Amino acid sequence: MEDIPPRTRIQTENRRRILDAALDAFSAQGFRGATLDQIARAAGLSKPNLLYYFPSKEAMHIALIEALMDTWLDPLRKLDPEGDPVDEIVGYVLRKLDLARDFPRESRLFANEIVQGAPNILPHITGPLKTLVDDKATLIAGWSRSGRLTPVDPHHLIFSIWATTQHYADFDAQVRGILAPANDAHFGDARVFLEQLYRRALTPG
Amino acid sequence: MEDIPPRTRIQTENRRRILDAALDAFSAQGFRGATLDQIARAAGLSKPNLLYYFPSKEAMHIALIEALMDTWLDPLRKLDPEGDPVDEIVGYVLRKLDLARDFPRESRLFANEIVQGAPNILPHITGPLKTLVDDKATLIAGWSRSGRLTPVDPHHLIFSIWATTQHYADFDAQVRGILAPANDAHFGDARVFLEQLYRRALTPG
DNA sequence: CAAGAGTTTGACCAAATGGTCAGGATCACG
DNA sequence: CGTGATCCTGACCATTTGGTCAAACTCTTG
User: Fold this and answer.
1) Residue B3: enclosing H or E segment and its boundaries?
2) First to last CA, chain B
């Protein structure tokens, strides 16, 4: 639960490098697929040195996931009850898509964890995450009731937004294999498509 | 490439049991997370016996993925140029959702593979899969041009359908954690939501 | 039922892997 | 500059894991 904050500069810097290397490894090969040797090499440290900063491989994994959860849900928290419903949701979609483009490793780390049954974060999902989602679902339901948003199941709307946006990070290999783009240009097309999809589906009338 | 077909009844039965156990293991824990001992125990066979039927762990993985690819893309192949465009696409969505409900292990196996960079199936993705998708994208683009479908980027439409439907298999742990359903009832709600989402977004006018 | 093909297994192995530890190097600071 | 705290490492260890193999068992069929 409580993190003892790093004290020295060396600690700050080395913990950062370790977590960065570990994020590379875990997101690309899953928890079991990543090895300490590999992480150590990428971080430029020796294996025992890794274990000087983190008591175990699992501790690195947990540290990464906890750090992730914080920022990951930020776009959802920003859903503003005062704004225009359709604009708010479209804005959420686009912010989430930005996250997928800018933090694909974090997205894949999360995906790996959930696909394998969420062994380390089920409590978080059924706790704070569920609370937040239920809260925003109520907001969306209110918008629907007021007629400013097409009536939809709010939970499944949120699921669909997660799915469509994270898809570009998690299934990047497939997307690139099919589109064969030289760069990240396809994110622009995805932006246009998703905005249109949700705007048309959610605008009443 | 070429499979030597099993000859005896024992071979047929044991290969089936091994692949079933391997699918359980690989889909739940990824390729590296699954162990031969675990698969052997689940299949009710000894570890050396496993390796009598398959030359290596990887051979099991490849056999599973190849078997999967075949049926996985069937719904997309069924997109009928003669049908009503919106109905065809909605039908595709619902068929894909049925697959996610009925074959979640296969979906997760595929997800694990892609998230980790599709090391074993990139050729298939850039080959036959891309060909099929490009073909159907052309069909959808034609529907759009004829005015019977809202103009959309066909590739991203297909991606969004994959994402929203497979989400219910791949992120099952998260969906259940948030909805806390006692059974598979949420698939009914997903059905209603997705049909509405795509029908509203794609119907012209 | 004899015999060869097909099937199964216990014992074993090499490599990989997460982790430990005693001691040495380096740094911060009085 | 001395000294205690912090940082780092080579050597080592136990376990796990994918895979091998010779021998034994069982099934089929002439």
Assistant:
1) none
2) 49
Q: Output the distance from A33 CA to D24 C1' rounded to whole Å.
A: 38
Query: Which residues in chain A have Cβ-Cβ distances shorter than 8 Å to B114?
Result: 170-171, 173-174
The rounded distance, in Å, linking the Cα atoms of B38 and B56 is 15
> Is the predicted pLDDT of residue A4 greater than 70, yes or no?
no
pLDDT by residue (tens digit) across A23-81?
Answer: 999 999 999 999 999 999 999 999 999 999 999 999 999 999 999 988 888 999 999 99
Q: Tens of pLDDT along B83-112? A: 999 999 999 999 999 999 999 999 999 999
Q: Is B129 on the interface with A (CB under 8 A)?
A: yes
| ipTM of the complex in this document | 0.93
CB contact under 8 A, A33 and B28: no
What is the residue whose two structure tokens read 């199941």? A153
The distance in angstroms from the start CA to the end CA of chain A is 48
pLDDT digits (tens, 9 = 90+) for B170-184: 999 999 999 987 778
- What is d(CA B179, CA B141) in angstroms, rounded to the nearest whole number? 37
Q: How far is CA A34 from the centre of its chain?
A: 20
Read off the pTM: 0.94
Q: Is the CB of A7 under 7 A from strand C?
A: no
Contact B178 A133 (CB under 8 A): yes
d(CA A126, CA A111): 17
Q: Which two tokens stand for residue B130?
A: 């891309």
Tally of CA atoms within 13 A in the half-sphere of B84 that contains its CB: 8
